[in-house]
Write a structure and sequence with these properties.
- The chain has 200 residues and is mostly helical.
- The chain has 8 helices and 3 strands.
- The protein folds into 2 domains: 67 residues, Helix Hairpins; 102 residues, Iron/manganese superoxide dismutase, C-terminal domain (minor pseudopilin epsh fold).
- A 3-stranded antiparallel β-sheet has the order 2-1-3, sandwiched between helices.
- A hairpin with a 2-residue loop joins strand 1 and strand 2.
- Helix 1 packs antiparallel against helix 3.
- The structure holds manganese (III) ion.
- Manganese (III) ion binds next to helix 1.
Length: 200
């Protein structure tokens, strides 16, 4: 399988002022683009992997040949995580549906508690990585992953993730990661989050 950079479903400037256009262009074209290209280069070495999806690669990392395993983990994870990330953003914010809100309230007690746990996980992720709202065996929970590690590798279903690599926010927010996380809630596509839950 030849992996390709997915197109954004909105203009690069559409998420302003929450996520600035320059960041979106570099993040999507250069960073995500490089993950896709590195992943293709690694996987092309092995015919046996030619039909594997990115999900399969990340779920069965221990079956990926050892010489490309770390490259696939980092760049396959980078491709997968960013694809999910773009899909879960929207310039046309709508609040979670009643059903989605009930799932969150049942799991966390309130929407605000979920947001606070998510922010805490995103702030405490030292260096580069992600914070996630996931569905696990025990229901909805908040986790974080280092680098480009993807929750799917740990058996979780990703519902919503925030990229807290500095490349995701530094041009606009510099060292103020907390402000970026607060702004992120204005561009979350809750319909996509709910759809992921329903499909799982
Ligand atoms: Mn990124």
């Amino acid at each position: 399988m030849k992996f390709t950079l997915p197109e954004l479903k909105f203009g690069t400037g559409a998420l302003e002022p929450y996520i600035d256009e320059q960041t979106m262009i570099i993040h999507h074209q250069k960073h995500h683009g490089a993950y896709v290209s590195n992943l293709n280069t690694a996987v092309e070495k092995y015919d046996a992997l030619s039909e594997w999806t990115v999900e399969s690669l990340l779920k069965k990392l221990d079956e990926v040949p050892e010489d490309i395993r770390m490259t696939v983990r980092n760049n396959g994870g980078g491709h997968y995580n960013h694809t999910l990330f773009w899909e879960s953003l929207t310039p046309e914010y709508k609040a979670p549906s009643d059903q989605m809100m009930k799932l969150i309230v049942d799991a966390f007690g309130s929407f605000e508690v979920m947001q606070a746990e998510f922010k805490d996980a995103a702030l405490k992720r030292f260096g580069s990585g992600w914070a996630w709202l996931v569905k696990g065996e025990g229901g909805l929970k908040i986790i974080s992953t280092p680098n480009q590690d993807a929750p799917i590798s740990e058996g979780y279903v990703e519902l919503l993730g925030i990229d807290v690599w500095e490349h995701a926010y530094y041009l606009n927010y510099q060292n103020k990661r907390a402000d970026y996380i607060d702004a992120f809630w204005n561009v979350v596509n809750w319909a996509v989050v709910e759809e992921r839950f329903n499909k799982s």
